[in-house]
Amino acid sequence: MFLAGEPVIDVWAGHRDRRKTEPWARDTLCCVFSSTKGVAALCILQAVAEGSLELDAPIAAYWPEFAAAGKQALTVRHILSHQSGLVGLREPVEANLLYDWDAMCTRLAAEAPWWEPGTQHGYQARTFGFLLGEVLRRATGQRIGDWLRSRMAEPYDLDFWVGLPEPELKRCAQMVPARLKAGAPPPPESVRQLFAAMQDKTTATAAAFQNPSMGPGYMNSTEFRTAELPAMNGHGTARALARLYALSPEILPAELLAQAASTQSLGEDEVLKSLTHFGLGFMLHHPEAPLGRPGAFGHAGAGGSMAFYDPDTELAFCFAMNQMEQGVVNGGQSAQLCAEAVYQCL
Q1: 103 Cβ partners below 8 Å, 6+ apart?
Q2: What whole-number distance in Å separates Cα of residue 235 and Cα of residue 174?
Q3: Cis preceding linkage at 212, omega within 30
Q4: What digits encode the pLDDT tens for the residues 132-191?
Q5: In terms of DSSP bridges, do strands 297-300 and 283-284 run parallel, antiparallel, or are they unpaired?
Q6: E strands in the chain
Q7: For 255-273, how does the pLDDT look when each residue is reduced to its tens digit (9 = 90+)?
Q8: By CB atoms within 10 Å of each CB, which of 7, 19, 57, 227 scores lowest?
Q9: Please, which residues have CB within 8 angstroms of residue 72's CB and are 6 or more apart in sequence?
Q10: Which of 332, 190, 189, 187 is nearest to 273 (CA)?
């Protein structure tokens, strides 16, 4: 945690393996799943600030073949705000497609949106990273992983990666999937609706999360960790991600940062089947989907990770873990409790 740009809390505990034989270390790397989306957003917004991208420019201006299937007016803003309708592929594909950047982008360029862009919003669980990453590559020649390293991680000494180099694999925590404990209360109705929609192959939800199906244990594979998946496989320390958010007022112009933290999409999410609140690439606070306090922006990840920046208090916070919680899309219970404890100390 950082306050006014200065580190004030930096703690770690537990074990990095399922059998609890290897203590968590100061430099243990952890997958933060969709908390990666906030990092990708910072990269895209920095490119906007430098004039390499325009928020309201058609994607096809950078990626001509993307205009297919009625997407000629779909913009960078539509993707950042989850309004693109391009949440997944309709035709079933093999799991390894996610690890083939060019093939996945070719499929997305040919795909029709699930709704008219800009008329509704729905969580681009996986496509967010491919769409923004390919736009950035077309406009600048750099993918998000390279942009992150050269513009942010290396200049500021941040231990965070999108596409982990093989020498760093030995530092990774083993992610432990969530399991329902005996006697635990049933998940809330919104989670049950989400899981039901995932099982119906005709829904946008299933396209977003289950096509392709990645199978059990994928998050601990070398293939997953070393791939560049800017929506879902950032690896790093909580310290690094908190500091990146603390640096956001330095990385981005004030006017653009304010716009990024302003409401772009709010209401029922066509994919998640619950209320979501998005700015430009960031999750925003809402009483039904809390993330920090009103005015905060950041992102949560599957299983319970959460990172955000609160401009009012100048608080930058990150919680990362390897024991995952079930059905979490807005930050886990542990993350929420830690964040609330921090606020009570301010």
Answers
A1: 97
A2: 12
A3: yes
A4: 999 999 999 999 999 999 999 999 999 999 999 999 999 999 999 987 666 666 666 777
A5: antiparallel
A6: 2-3, 6-7, 30-31, 160-162, 234-236, 265-268, 275-278, 283-284, 297-300, 306-310, 315-319
A7: 999 999 999 999 999 999 9
A8: 19
A9: 58, 60
A10: 190
SS3 301: coil
Q: Are 320 and 24 in contact (CB under 8 A)?
A: no
At 151, the amino acid letter reads R
Task: Determine the angle formed by the axes of helices 127-140 and 36-49, rounding to 10 degrees.
Answer: 30
**CA–CA distance, 305 with 193 (Å, rounded to integer):** 22
CA dist 205 and 268 (Å) reads 13
Write down the residue that tokens 């005709």 correspond to. Answer: 202
Catalytic sites, residue numbers: 34
Instruction: Provide the residue count of the chain.
Output: 346
